[in-house]
Design a protein that fits this description.
The termini are far apart. By secondary structure, the protein is mostly helical. Helix 1 crosses helix 2. A hairpin with a 2-residue loop joins strand 1 and strand 2.
Amino acid sequence: MPEVEISIGGRRFEVACQDGEEHFLETAAGMLDREASALVQQTGRIPEARMLLMAGLMLADRTAGVEDRVEVLSAELEALKAELETLRNAPPPEPQRVEVPVVPASVTDTLAELAARAEALAERVEEMGPATASE
């Protein structure tokens, strides 16, 4: 079983751990050291047991806050999953009816007749020639 030397609040400790767990122990010790170092800076030198107790309580408080937030987020996630499932199971919406205005046939017939008359007049003007048209 490997022994790891850690530093917490400026004090050194030898701690045993399982093979391959050294990194996790060092990470946890680093978290505890940050809390203990903050205590030592605020209060000066305090007894080792009190420093470790207070640092552990501070970490526990943070952990409790994180756990509370995780519970809230989990509840929100479950609500979103339920809403998504409801939307997935809902029938598709009815297609929207879009009405496109149609030009009445009488208007298109009248326009076609006017166009034909205009073309006929244009042809007659061309047949008269340039001299007659300017008179």
